[in-house]
Amino acid sequence: MIKRIWNGYTTPDNADAYERLLDSFVFPGIEARKIPGYRSIELLQRVSGDEVQFTTVMSFDSLDNIIAFQGADYEAAYVPEEARKILKRWDLRSTHHQVLQTRIYG
Question: Which domains does the chain have, with CATH numbers?
Answer without folding.
Answer: 2-98 (3.30.70.100)
